[in-house]
């Protein structure tokens, strides 16, 4: 038998397969490798199959047509042949020999090179482009930081409001503005309204006017809405006090009469006048409609300009009223308002990219990305954690603390336990998470559910222990009220031997828990459950909940 090196570098004749095996005296034969000509006995080129070979089936026993399948360890392409390293296979009976008539099966069997095959969707050799079913076209014509079609990609609706005409004595002003009002004693207001746009009221909505959109309308130095002839305020006693507001209005009534108590009005720009002195500021705004707040399926948007004159004294010259939407020093005479939805639907054009299996979610998750899991899949333990280690001895929850403290170290079963936080927290902080809502309260000691008025930046989940007054309550589950968008908690009352009592609306709710503890059972992460732990480092005894959270420090041993 040649050495493996000699065997690998010796080309077989055309149409031949050679086998490398070992057969020590008294031991079974082991097939280890093959050399295969890239041209078979019929002159067919087998290179495409041999380059991608997963398995080969052939007869290796003398005097029989019985076939055997060999798995491939590695493939090395040589000049006119291939050296194939096999997964070793042992033959305990029969003798290895040659055959010239046995069949050979290549898996896979390919007749063309896969690189230029139509099935190779990622090779980028398509001659015709088709639009993707998933990916959106990104318009970078205006720069690389923010695409021109960003709103379309993100599914943000864009509303355009403009054509604001001021009205006096029930008649609109003509444009360009030619009228003036020398009514020196007049005080009151002049209104102007834009076009009305309706949007679908589905889910939670954020209606936003940004500072950039206000600047696009008015510029960085907006013109005055009141225009006076030159020298007006040089006259003795000439005084003028007024104000101009641009207001965004949203209502579920097209009359904007707040018929359903769902009208929102936000001032986005204001100008104040004191004779010749003008002060003004822009106010970016956000109007939030929670799901189910409005009674109608449609919301209506408009902007209005209100000119208010509070004082005009003697000798004040005539003035001209100006619509800021018509005398803007920018290119736009309209205001853009963006509508952000809870479940946005992108409406950008599809990208001219050929889809393949690599863009199919089911296939890419299974093959490459993996499938997202949560703590629900692992009995409350996060699928990926950064854990610290500490040493402790576990005891049943009913064991007496004096007994636990009195044990010597040699009598304890000290094990390694793990905690999720950066440091082990044995002190139990009380984190305020909100108050009991007036809609659904704990009216008596038997109630097992209530609605929480949550506070910003707080969260809660099943298994948490809540502190309400002196009573501890365990969260069993939670849902969200679609009308109020607030969590409704289903709870177990009187946890840890506390007394269940009635809790009225407005009562403060705290979440009380320390670190979450778990241990390893082989390579499996297991939640600790309700136990007592004697912690070796500080000799404290802590109690844990069913979910493994530290609930309280029972005592600190002195011996």
Looking at this protein, list some descriptive labels.
mainly beta; 5 domains; flat; 559 residues; seven-stranded antiparallel beta sheet
* Radius of gyration of CA atoms, rounded to a whole number: 40 Å
Number of helices: 6
Helix content estimate: under 10%
Q: Can you give the mean pLDDT?
A: 79
Cα-to-Cα separation, first versus last residue: 75 Å
| Assembly status | single chain
The count of strands amounts to 33
Our estimate of the beta-strand percent is 35-45%
Biggest β-sheet: count, sense, barrel? 8 strands, antiparallel
Per the principal axes of the C-alpha atoms, what is the gross shape? flat
Description:
By secondary structure, the chain is mainly beta. The protein has five domains: 4-116; 129-147 and 346-370, no CATH class; 156-341, no CATH class; 388-426 and 516-556, no CATH class; 430-512, Thrombin, subunit H, CATH 2.40.10. It contains six helices and 33 strands. Strands 8, 9, 10, 11, 14, 15, 16 and 18 form an eight-stranded antiparallel sheet that branches. The longest helix has 9 residues, at 361-369. The model is unreliable at 170-186 (pLDDT under 50).
What topology does this entry show?
Layout: H1 4-8, E1 17-22, E2 29-37, H2 47-51, E3 55-58, E4 68-77, E5 81-91, E6 105-107, H3 150-154, E7 157-162, E8 165-168, E9 171-172, E10 188-193, E11 197-200, E12 205-209, H4 211-218, E13 226-227, E14 240-251, E15 264-274, E16 277-282, E17 285-289, E18 298-312, E19 320-321, E20 334-341, H5 361-369, E21 388-395, H6 401-406, E22 414-419, E23 430-436, E24 449-454, E25 465-468, E26 471-481, E27 486-495, E28 508-512, E29 517-521, E30 524-527, E31 532-535, E32 540-544, E33 550-556
Antiparallel strand pairs: 1-2, 2-5, 3-4, 3-6, 4-5, 7-20, 8-9, 8-10, 10-18, 11-18, 12-17, 12-20, 13-19, 14-15, 14-18, 15-16, 21-22, 21-31, 22-29, 23-24, 23-28, 24-27, 25-26, 25-28, 26-27, 29-30, 31-32, 32-33
